[in-house]
Amino acid sequence: AASACPLFAGWPGADAPKPRMRDPASVHSADGARVLWTIDNKRYDVTDYVDAHPGGRDAILAAQGRSATALFRSYHSLSDSAQAVLDRYYVEDAAPGDADYEDEWEWRSTPFHDALNRRVRAHFERKQARRERVRGGTVSTAHKAPAWKWAWLGAATVAWAASLAGFLAGSWAAMLAMPLLYWLGPSSLLHDGMHWSLSVSPRVNGALAALGGVHMEPTAWLHQHVIGHHSHTNVVERDPDLDHFTGSGGASVLQVGGGAADNAFYGFRCHAAEPWRPTFGAWKAWLPIMGLLTTVYPSMFESTEMLSRGSFLGRVPLVALSRSDVARLWLGRALVASVLWVAPFALHGLTLKALAFATLPLFIHGAVYYVFSQVSHIQPPCFEEPPEGERFEWAEMQVRHSLDWGNGGVVQTLASIGLNSQVVHHVYPQIDPTHYGELRPIFEQTCEEFGIPYHRQPSLWHALRSHVSLLQDMNRTDVWGASGDGAPAPQAAAAMA
Protein backbone atom coordinates (compact mmCIF):
# COMPACT_ATOMS: atom_id res chain seq x y z
CA ALA A 1 0.00 0.00 0.00
CA ALA A 2 1.18 3.49 -0.76
CA SER A 3 2.13 5.77 2.09
CA ALA A 4 -0.71 8.03 3.19
CA CYS A 5 1.67 10.96 3.12
CA PRO A 6 4.06 11.30 0.17
CA LEU A 7 6.66 12.86 2.45
CA PHE A 8 7.22 9.43 3.97
CA ALA A 9 7.23 7.47 0.71
CA GLY A 10 10.35 5.47 0.07
CA TRP A 11 11.78 5.16 3.54
CA PRO A 12 11.51 2.14 5.87
CA GLY A 13 8.35 1.98 7.91
CA ALA A 14 6.49 4.49 5.73
CA ASP A 15 3.33 2.41 5.68
CA ALA A 16 3.41 1.29 9.31
CA PRO A 17 1.55 3.15 12.06
CA LYS A 18 4.01 5.36 13.87
CA PRO A 19 4.09 4.93 17.65
CA ARG A 20 3.78 7.97 19.86
CA MET A 21 7.19 7.19 21.32
CA ARG A 22 9.98 5.41 19.48
CA ASP A 23 9.92 1.71 20.43
CA PRO A 24 13.25 0.11 19.48
CA ALA A 25 11.72 -3.37 19.52
CA SER A 26 9.33 -2.42 16.71
CA VAL A 27 12.06 -1.45 14.23
CA HIS A 28 12.56 -4.17 11.62
CA SER A 29 14.44 -4.40 8.34
CA ALA A 30 12.80 -5.19 5.01
CA ASP A 31 13.19 -8.93 5.61
CA GLY A 32 11.51 -8.71 9.01
CA ALA A 33 14.66 -9.00 11.12
CA ARG A 34 15.08 -6.91 14.24
CA VAL A 35 17.29 -3.86 13.72
CA LEU A 36 20.18 -4.02 16.19
CA TRP A 37 23.12 -1.88 17.30
CA THR A 38 26.54 -2.48 15.69
CA ILE A 39 29.71 -1.61 17.60
CA ASP A 40 33.16 -2.83 16.49
CA ASN A 41 31.39 -4.96 13.86
CA LYS A 42 29.53 -6.86 16.58
CA ARG A 43 25.75 -6.66 16.84
CA TYR A 44 24.00 -6.07 20.12
CA ASP A 45 20.35 -5.94 21.14
CA VAL A 46 20.16 -3.31 23.87
CA THR A 47 16.39 -2.90 23.60
CA ASP A 48 15.90 -3.77 27.26
CA TYR A 49 18.55 -1.25 28.30
CA VAL A 50 17.22 1.79 26.42
CA ASP A 51 15.19 3.24 29.28
CA ALA A 52 18.00 2.59 31.77
CA HIS A 53 20.69 4.26 29.65
CA PRO A 54 22.28 7.05 31.75
CA GLY A 55 22.65 9.21 28.64
CA GLY A 56 18.95 9.01 27.82
CA ARG A 57 16.83 7.39 25.13
CA ASP A 58 17.73 9.76 22.30
CA ALA A 59 21.43 9.06 22.62
CA ILE A 60 21.17 5.28 22.53
CA LEU A 61 18.45 5.21 19.86
CA ALA A 62 20.64 7.34 17.58
CA ALA A 63 22.95 4.33 17.25
CA GLN A 64 20.31 1.74 16.35
CA GLY A 65 20.49 0.24 12.88
CA ARG A 66 23.89 1.62 11.94
CA SER A 67 27.58 1.11 12.57
CA ALA A 68 27.98 3.25 15.66
CA THR A 69 31.50 2.46 16.86
CA ALA A 70 32.60 6.09 16.64
CA LEU A 71 29.58 7.27 18.60
CA PHE A 72 30.07 4.63 21.28
CA ARG A 73 33.81 5.10 21.66
CA SER A 74 33.75 8.90 21.74
CA TYR A 75 30.83 9.37 24.12
CA HIS A 76 32.02 6.65 26.51
CA SER A 77 35.71 7.54 26.44
CA LEU A 78 35.62 8.69 30.08
CA SER A 79 33.76 5.58 31.27
CA ASP A 80 35.24 2.31 32.52
CA SER A 81 31.96 0.38 32.60
CA ALA A 82 30.25 1.01 29.25
CA GLN A 83 31.90 -1.87 27.38
CA ALA A 84 31.09 -4.35 30.16
CA VAL A 85 27.44 -3.29 30.04
CA LEU A 86 27.36 -3.57 26.25
CA ASP A 87 28.88 -7.05 26.30
CA ARG A 88 25.85 -8.39 28.15
CA TYR A 89 23.72 -7.77 25.06
CA TYR A 90 25.92 -9.37 22.38
CA VAL A 91 24.02 -11.19 19.60
CA GLU A 92 26.35 -11.90 16.66
CA ASP A 93 29.17 -10.60 14.52
CA ALA A 94 28.56 -8.53 11.40
CA ALA A 95 30.17 -9.99 8.29
CA PRO A 96 32.24 -8.15 5.67
CA GLY A 97 29.86 -6.85 3.03
CA ASP A 98 26.98 -6.29 5.45
CA ALA A 99 25.55 -2.78 5.43
CA ASP A 100 26.57 -2.24 9.05
CA TYR A 101 30.09 -3.65 8.65
CA GLU A 102 32.76 -0.96 8.67
CA ASP A 103 36.54 -1.17 8.41
CA GLU A 104 37.32 2.47 7.70
CA TRP A 105 39.21 3.13 10.94
CA GLU A 106 41.70 1.18 13.01
CA TRP A 107 39.88 0.16 16.20
CA ARG A 108 41.80 -2.95 17.26
CA SER A 109 44.92 -1.07 18.32
CA THR A 110 44.38 2.55 19.35
CA PRO A 111 47.48 3.70 21.27
CA PHE A 112 46.92 7.39 20.44
CA HIS A 113 43.29 7.43 21.60
CA ASP A 114 44.19 5.34 24.65
CA ALA A 115 46.89 7.80 25.68
CA LEU A 116 44.52 10.74 25.28
CA ASN A 117 41.85 8.96 27.30
CA ARG A 118 44.23 8.24 30.18
CA ARG A 119 45.40 11.82 30.36
CA VAL A 120 42.00 13.44 29.94
CA ARG A 121 40.46 11.13 32.53
CA ALA A 122 43.24 11.95 34.98
CA HIS A 123 42.67 15.65 34.38
CA PHE A 124 38.98 15.43 35.24
CA GLU A 125 39.55 13.05 38.13
CA ARG A 126 41.73 15.73 39.69
CA LYS A 127 39.09 18.36 39.04
CA GLN A 128 36.35 16.14 40.44
CA ALA A 129 38.37 15.44 43.58
CA ARG A 130 38.76 19.17 44.17
CA ARG A 131 35.03 19.72 43.62
CA GLU A 132 34.08 16.95 46.04
CA ARG A 133 36.37 18.32 48.73
CA VAL A 134 34.72 21.71 48.42
CA ARG A 135 31.10 20.76 47.71
CA GLY A 136 30.71 17.07 48.42
CA GLY A 137 28.90 14.70 46.08
CA THR A 138 29.86 11.64 44.09
CA VAL A 139 28.44 12.09 40.57
CA SER A 140 31.22 13.03 38.16
CA THR A 141 30.19 16.38 36.72
CA ALA A 142 33.63 17.94 36.40
CA HIS A 143 33.52 17.72 32.58
CA LYS A 144 30.07 19.31 32.26
CA ALA A 145 29.15 23.01 32.15
CA PRO A 146 30.33 24.97 35.21
CA ALA A 147 28.01 27.31 37.11
CA TRP A 148 29.32 30.43 35.41
CA LYS A 149 28.58 28.90 31.98
CA TRP A 150 24.98 28.30 33.06
CA ALA A 151 24.75 31.94 34.18
CA TRP A 152 26.14 33.10 30.84
CA LEU A 153 23.75 30.94 28.81
CA GLY A 154 20.82 32.05 30.95
CA ALA A 155 21.66 35.72 30.49
CA ALA A 156 22.20 35.35 26.75
CA THR A 157 18.95 33.42 26.31
CA VAL A 158 16.92 35.92 28.34
CA ALA A 159 18.46 38.75 26.32
CA TRP A 160 17.54 36.91 23.13
CA ALA A 161 13.94 36.49 24.34
CA ALA A 162 13.79 40.23 25.04
CA SER A 163 15.14 40.97 21.56
CA LEU A 164 12.51 38.64 20.08
CA ALA A 165 9.83 40.69 21.82
CA GLY A 166 11.41 43.83 20.41
CA PHE A 167 11.55 42.22 16.97
CA LEU A 168 7.80 41.56 17.10
CA ALA A 169 7.28 45.14 18.29
CA GLY A 170 9.08 46.47 15.22
CA SER A 171 12.37 47.59 16.79
CA TRP A 172 15.22 47.77 14.30
CA ALA A 173 17.83 47.54 17.06
CA ALA A 174 16.18 44.43 18.49
CA MET A 175 15.93 42.86 15.03
CA LEU A 176 19.66 43.34 14.42
CA ALA A 177 20.64 42.16 17.91
CA MET A 178 18.35 39.12 17.91
CA PRO A 179 20.46 36.79 15.68
CA LEU A 180 23.67 37.64 17.55
CA LEU A 181 22.07 36.96 20.93
CA TYR A 182 20.53 33.80 19.52
CA TRP A 183 23.99 32.65 18.48
CA LEU A 184 25.41 33.21 21.97
CA GLY A 185 22.46 31.61 23.78
CA PRO A 186 20.10 29.17 22.03
CA SER A 187 22.59 28.15 19.31
CA SER A 188 24.99 27.11 22.04
CA LEU A 189 22.19 25.26 23.83
CA LEU A 190 21.37 23.29 20.66
CA HIS A 191 24.97 22.39 19.97
CA ASP A 192 25.99 21.49 23.52
CA GLY A 193 22.65 19.98 24.50
CA MET A 194 22.63 17.61 21.52
CA HIS A 195 26.16 16.54 22.46
CA TRP A 196 24.89 15.91 26.01
CA SER A 197 27.74 18.06 27.32
CA LEU A 198 25.79 20.63 29.34
CA SER A 199 24.42 18.41 32.08
CA VAL A 200 24.47 14.83 33.35
CA SER A 201 20.68 14.91 32.93
CA PRO A 202 19.53 13.87 29.43
CA ARG A 203 16.17 15.58 30.03
CA VAL A 204 17.88 18.89 30.76
CA ASN A 205 20.11 18.56 27.70
CA GLY A 206 17.15 17.72 25.45
CA ALA A 207 14.89 20.48 26.74
CA LEU A 208 17.55 23.16 26.36
CA ALA A 209 18.56 21.93 22.91
CA ALA A 210 14.98 22.51 21.76
CA LEU A 211 15.46 26.24 22.39
CA GLY A 212 18.03 26.21 19.59
CA GLY A 213 15.59 24.69 17.15
CA VAL A 214 15.27 27.84 15.06
CA HIS A 215 18.60 27.19 13.39
CA MET A 216 18.04 23.45 12.99
CA GLU A 217 15.33 21.02 13.99
CA PRO A 218 16.88 18.82 16.72
CA THR A 219 16.12 15.48 15.02
CA ALA A 220 17.71 16.73 11.80
CA TRP A 221 20.65 18.15 13.76
CA LEU A 222 21.14 14.78 15.45
CA HIS A 223 21.49 13.07 12.07
CA GLN A 224 23.49 15.77 10.31
CA HIS A 225 25.86 16.83 13.05
CA VAL A 226 26.08 14.25 15.81
CA ILE A 227 25.82 11.07 13.73
CA GLY A 228 27.08 12.21 10.33
CA HIS A 229 29.61 14.99 10.76
CA HIS A 230 31.17 13.84 14.03
CA SER A 231 31.54 10.20 13.01
CA HIS A 232 33.05 10.92 9.57
CA THR A 233 34.54 14.40 9.73
CA ASN A 234 35.67 15.55 6.28
CA VAL A 235 35.21 12.06 4.85
CA VAL A 236 33.87 12.43 1.32
CA GLU A 237 30.41 10.93 0.78
CA ARG A 238 30.01 10.30 4.51
CA ASP A 239 30.16 13.76 6.11
CA PRO A 240 26.99 15.70 5.15
CA ASP A 241 28.68 18.98 6.06
CA LEU A 242 30.73 18.68 2.87
CA ASP A 243 27.52 18.78 0.82
CA HIS A 244 25.88 21.97 2.08
CA PHE A 245 27.68 24.18 -0.40
CA THR A 246 28.59 21.88 -3.29
CA GLY A 247 25.16 20.40 -3.98
CA SER A 248 26.45 16.82 -3.91
CA GLY A 249 23.96 15.67 -1.30
CA GLY A 250 21.67 18.36 -2.47
CA ALA A 251 18.16 19.22 -1.34
CA SER A 252 16.01 19.28 -4.46
CA VAL A 253 14.82 22.85 -3.85
CA LEU A 254 18.16 24.06 -5.22
CA GLN A 255 18.54 21.50 -7.98
CA VAL A 256 17.07 20.89 -11.39
CA GLY A 257 16.12 17.58 -12.96
CA GLY A 258 15.05 15.32 -10.13
CA GLY A 259 17.75 16.31 -7.68
CA ALA A 260 20.72 14.95 -9.60
CA ALA A 261 23.89 16.50 -8.24
CA ASP A 262 25.22 17.14 -11.74
CA ASN A 263 22.32 19.53 -12.32
CA ALA A 264 22.81 21.64 -9.19
CA PHE A 265 23.02 25.22 -10.36
CA TYR A 266 24.71 26.68 -7.29
CA GLY A 267 27.60 26.32 -4.91
CA PHE A 268 31.33 26.09 -4.65
CA ARG A 269 33.86 23.33 -4.24
CA CYS A 270 35.35 22.51 -0.80
CA HIS A 271 37.60 19.55 -1.57
CA ALA A 272 39.44 17.92 -4.46
CA ALA A 273 37.19 14.85 -4.65
CA GLU A 274 34.19 16.94 -5.69
CA PRO A 275 33.57 16.56 -9.46
CA TRP A 276 34.00 19.83 -11.30
CA ARG A 277 30.98 21.82 -12.47
CA PRO A 278 31.12 25.07 -14.44
CA THR A 279 29.10 26.72 -11.67
CA PHE A 280 32.14 26.54 -9.42
CA GLY A 281 33.90 29.13 -11.53
CA ALA A 282 31.57 31.70 -9.95
CA TRP A 283 32.51 30.67 -6.39
CA LYS A 284 33.25 34.25 -5.30
CA ALA A 285 29.62 35.12 -5.97
CA TRP A 286 28.23 31.95 -4.40
CA LEU A 287 30.35 32.17 -1.24
CA PRO A 288 28.54 35.19 0.29
CA ILE A 289 25.17 33.96 -0.96
CA MET A 290 25.55 30.50 0.53
CA GLY A 291 27.13 31.96 3.65
CA LEU A 292 24.03 34.06 4.29
CA LEU A 293 21.82 31.01 3.69
CA THR A 294 23.74 28.80 6.12
CA THR A 295 20.93 29.10 8.68
CA VAL A 296 17.72 29.33 6.69
CA TYR A 297 18.50 26.62 4.16
CA PRO A 298 19.26 23.78 6.63
CA SER A 299 16.59 24.99 9.03
CA MET A 300 13.67 25.13 6.63
CA PHE A 301 14.61 22.93 3.67
CA GLU A 302 17.17 20.29 4.63
CA SER A 303 15.31 19.46 7.85
CA THR A 304 12.03 18.74 6.08
CA GLU A 305 13.57 17.26 2.93
CA MET A 306 15.12 14.65 5.21
CA LEU A 307 11.68 13.08 5.71
CA SER A 308 10.95 12.53 2.04
CA ARG A 309 14.43 11.28 1.29
CA GLY A 310 14.76 8.96 4.26
CA SER A 311 18.22 10.29 5.04
CA PHE A 312 20.01 13.53 5.70
CA LEU A 313 21.36 14.71 2.33
CA GLY A 314 21.66 11.09 1.26
CA ARG A 315 24.49 10.54 3.74
CA VAL A 316 22.91 9.61 7.09
CA PRO A 317 19.95 7.20 6.90
CA LEU A 318 16.90 7.58 9.10
CA VAL A 319 16.25 4.33 10.93
CA ALA A 320 12.86 5.12 12.43
CA LEU A 321 10.83 8.07 13.65
CA SER A 322 7.86 8.14 15.99
CA ARG A 323 4.73 10.20 15.42
CA SER A 324 5.96 12.66 18.01
CA ASP A 325 9.29 13.01 16.16
CA VAL A 326 7.53 13.88 12.90
CA ALA A 327 4.97 16.13 14.56
CA ARG A 328 7.67 17.99 16.47
CA LEU A 329 9.64 18.55 13.29
CA TRP A 330 6.70 19.97 11.33
CA LEU A 331 5.30 22.02 14.21
CA GLY A 332 8.73 23.43 14.90
CA ARG A 333 9.28 24.48 11.30
CA ALA A 334 5.77 25.97 11.16
CA LEU A 335 6.46 27.99 14.31
CA VAL A 336 9.77 29.27 12.97
CA ALA A 337 8.19 30.27 9.66
CA SER A 338 5.26 31.95 11.41
CA VAL A 339 7.42 34.07 13.71
CA LEU A 340 10.27 34.93 11.35
CA TRP A 341 8.51 35.10 7.98
CA VAL A 342 4.77 35.55 8.40
CA ALA A 343 4.75 37.88 11.41
CA PRO A 344 6.84 40.67 9.81
CA PHE A 345 4.44 40.99 6.88
CA ALA A 346 1.39 40.61 9.12
CA LEU A 347 2.66 43.40 11.37
CA HIS A 348 4.23 45.74 8.81
CA GLY A 349 2.40 44.95 5.58
CA LEU A 350 4.05 44.53 2.20
CA THR A 351 6.85 46.96 3.00
CA LEU A 352 10.62 47.05 2.80
CA LYS A 353 10.68 46.98 6.59
CA ALA A 354 8.78 43.70 6.61
CA LEU A 355 11.17 42.28 4.01
CA ALA A 356 14.18 43.36 6.09
CA PHE A 357 12.73 41.85 9.25
CA ALA A 358 11.95 38.58 7.44
CA THR A 359 15.44 38.17 5.97
CA LEU A 360 18.16 40.01 7.88
CA PRO A 361 18.02 38.00 11.15
CA LEU A 362 18.50 34.72 9.29
CA PHE A 363 21.18 36.21 7.05
CA ILE A 364 23.13 37.63 10.02
CA HIS A 365 22.99 34.37 11.94
CA GLY A 366 23.90 32.50 8.76
CA ALA A 367 27.01 34.61 8.21
CA VAL A 368 28.13 34.15 11.82
CA TYR A 369 27.44 30.43 11.72
CA TYR A 370 29.27 29.97 8.43
CA VAL A 371 32.42 31.68 9.67
CA PHE A 372 32.66 29.87 12.99
CA SER A 373 31.65 26.44 11.70
CA GLN A 374 33.54 26.21 8.41
CA VAL A 375 36.95 27.62 9.29
CA SER A 376 37.69 24.69 11.59
CA HIS A 377 37.39 21.92 8.97
CA ILE A 378 37.45 23.34 5.43
CA GLN A 379 41.17 23.97 5.58
CA PRO A 380 44.12 22.95 3.36
CA PRO A 381 45.62 20.38 5.78
CA CYS A 382 42.30 18.91 6.97
CA PHE A 383 41.59 16.38 4.21
CA GLU A 384 44.58 14.10 4.73
CA GLU A 385 44.09 10.42 3.95
CA PRO A 386 46.20 7.55 5.31
CA PRO A 387 48.90 5.94 3.15
CA GLU A 388 47.61 3.26 0.82
CA GLY A 389 46.90 0.03 2.65
CA GLU A 390 46.86 1.71 6.07
CA ARG A 391 44.14 3.09 8.31
CA PHE A 392 44.04 5.96 10.78
CA GLU A 393 42.73 5.52 14.26
CA TRP A 394 39.38 7.28 14.44
CA ALA A 395 40.71 9.79 17.00
CA GLU A 396 43.75 10.41 14.81
CA MET A 397 41.47 11.13 11.85
CA GLN A 398 39.51 13.64 13.95
CA VAL A 399 42.70 15.46 14.90
CA ARG A 400 44.03 15.50 11.33
CA HIS A 401 40.69 16.70 9.92
CA SER A 402 40.10 19.56 12.37
CA LEU A 403 41.73 22.85 13.29
CA ASP A 404 41.89 24.98 16.43
CA TRP A 405 42.34 28.73 16.34
CA GLY A 406 43.17 31.36 18.94
CA ASN A 407 44.41 30.73 22.45
CA GLY A 408 41.44 28.74 23.75
CA GLY A 409 40.51 31.53 26.15
CA VAL A 410 37.10 32.10 27.69
CA VAL A 411 36.11 35.07 25.50
CA GLN A 412 36.94 33.25 22.27
CA THR A 413 35.18 30.11 23.50
CA LEU A 414 31.97 31.91 24.41
CA ALA A 415 31.96 34.03 21.25
CA SER A 416 32.44 30.96 19.05
CA ILE A 417 30.24 28.70 21.25
CA GLY A 418 33.25 26.43 21.56
CA LEU A 419 33.96 26.06 17.85
CA ASN A 420 37.43 27.55 18.32
CA SER A 421 38.66 24.19 19.70
CA GLN A 422 37.36 21.69 17.19
CA VAL A 423 40.31 19.32 17.52
CA VAL A 424 39.48 18.72 21.17
CA HIS A 425 35.73 18.82 20.60
CA HIS A 426 35.71 16.17 17.90
CA VAL A 427 37.47 13.63 20.09
CA TYR A 428 35.51 14.52 23.25
CA PRO A 429 32.12 15.94 22.23
CA GLN A 430 30.57 15.04 25.60
CA ILE A 431 32.87 17.51 27.40
CA ASP A 432 31.60 21.08 27.74
CA PRO A 433 33.57 23.53 25.57
CA THR A 434 34.58 25.64 28.59
CA HIS A 435 37.12 22.91 29.43
CA TYR A 436 38.74 22.71 26.00
CA GLY A 437 41.36 25.35 26.71
CA GLU A 438 42.63 23.19 29.59
CA LEU A 439 42.81 20.14 27.33
CA ARG A 440 44.73 21.74 24.47
CA PRO A 441 48.15 21.20 26.14
CA ILE A 442 47.29 17.51 26.62
CA PHE A 443 46.49 17.23 22.91
CA GLU A 444 49.62 19.11 21.89
CA GLN A 445 51.83 16.86 24.02
CA THR A 446 50.17 13.63 22.89
CA CYS A 447 50.16 14.61 19.21
CA GLU A 448 53.85 15.46 19.39
CA GLU A 449 54.65 12.10 21.00
CA PHE A 450 52.78 10.19 18.28
CA GLY A 451 53.94 12.33 15.36
CA ILE A 452 50.41 13.51 14.53
CA PRO A 453 50.00 17.11 13.31
CA TYR A 454 47.89 19.35 15.54
CA HIS A 455 46.49 21.98 13.18
CA ARG A 456 46.02 25.45 14.63
CA GLN A 457 45.94 29.09 13.59
CA PRO A 458 46.79 32.01 15.88
CA SER A 459 43.47 33.79 15.36
CA LEU A 460 40.08 33.58 13.71
CA TRP A 461 41.30 35.98 11.04
CA HIS A 462 44.21 33.70 10.16
CA ALA A 463 41.89 30.70 10.06
CA LEU A 464 39.45 32.55 7.81
CA ARG A 465 42.20 33.58 5.40
CA SER A 466 43.43 29.99 5.20
CA HIS A 467 39.86 28.79 4.60
CA VAL A 468 39.33 31.21 1.73
CA SER A 469 42.68 30.28 0.21
CA LEU A 470 41.53 26.65 0.03
CA LEU A 471 38.28 27.66 -1.68
CA GLN A 472 40.25 29.73 -4.16
CA ASP A 473 42.49 26.76 -5.00
CA MET A 474 39.58 24.31 -5.23
CA ASN A 475 37.52 26.50 -7.57
CA ARG A 476 40.13 27.67 -10.07
CA THR A 477 38.74 27.10 -13.54
CA ASP A 478 42.23 27.10 -15.06
CA VAL A 479 43.21 24.18 -12.82
CA TRP A 480 40.17 22.02 -12.21
CA GLY A 481 37.93 22.99 -15.09
CA ALA A 482 40.57 22.30 -17.70
CA SER A 483 40.07 18.54 -17.57
CA GLY A 484 36.33 18.69 -16.93
CA ASP A 485 36.33 15.70 -14.58
CA GLY A 486 37.55 17.16 -11.32
CA ALA A 487 41.18 16.24 -11.92
CA PRO A 488 43.61 19.14 -12.21
CA ALA A 489 45.14 19.96 -15.55
CA PRO A 490 48.73 18.65 -15.24
CA GLN A 491 50.48 21.90 -16.04
CA ALA A 492 48.22 23.92 -13.74
CA ALA A 493 48.55 21.41 -10.92
CA ALA A 494 52.31 21.64 -11.19
CA ALA A 495 52.08 25.41 -10.98
CA MET A 496 50.06 25.14 -7.77
CA ALA A 497 52.49 22.74 -6.09
UniProtKB/TrEMBL annotation:
<feature type="domain" description="Cytochrome b5 heme-binding">
    <location>
        <begin position="17"/>
        <end position="95"/>
    </location>
</feature>
<comment type="similarity">
    <text>Belongs to the cytochrome b5 family.</text>
</comment>
<keyword id="KW-0812">Transmembrane</keyword>
<dbReference type="InterPro" id="IPR005804">
    <property type="entry name" value="FA_desaturase_dom"/>
</dbReference>
<dbReference type="GO" id="GO:0016020">
    <property type="term" value="C:membrane"/>
</dbReference>
<dbReference type="GO" id="GO:0020037">
    <property type="term" value="F:heme binding"/>
</dbReference>
<dbReference type="GO" id="GO:0046872">
    <property type="term" value="F:metal ion binding"/>
</dbReference>
<dbReference type="InterPro" id="IPR001199">
    <property type="entry name" value="Cyt_B5-like_heme/steroid-bd"/>
</dbReference>
<keyword id="KW-1133">Transmembrane helix</keyword>
<keyword id="KW-0479">Metal-binding</keyword>
<dbReference type="Pfam" id="PF00487">
    <property type="entry name" value="FA_desaturase"/>
</dbReference>
<dbReference type="InterPro" id="IPR018506">
    <property type="entry name" value="Cyt_B5_heme-BS"/>
</dbReference>
<dbReference type="Pfam" id="PF00173">
    <property type="entry name" value="Cyt-b5"/>
</dbReference>
<dbReference type="GO" id="GO:0006629">
    <property type="term" value="P:lipid metabolic process"/>
</dbReference>
<dbReference type="GO" id="GO:0016717">
    <property type="term" value="F:oxidoreductase activity, acting on paired donors, with oxidation of a pair of donors resulting in the reduction of molecular oxygen to two molecules of water"/>
</dbReference>
<feature type="transmembrane region" description="Helical">
    <location>
        <begin position="151"/>
        <end position="184"/>
    </location>
</feature>
<keyword id="KW-0472">Membrane</keyword>
<dbReference type="InterPro" id="IPR036400">
    <property type="entry name" value="Cyt_B5-like_heme/steroid_sf"/>
</dbReference>
<dbReference type="InterPro" id="IPR012171">
    <property type="entry name" value="Fatty_acid_desaturase"/>
</dbReference>
<keyword id="KW-0408">Iron</keyword>
<protein>
    <recommendedName>
        <fullName>Cytochrome b5 heme-binding domain-containing protein</fullName>
    </recommendedName>
</protein>
<keyword id="KW-0349">Heme</keyword>
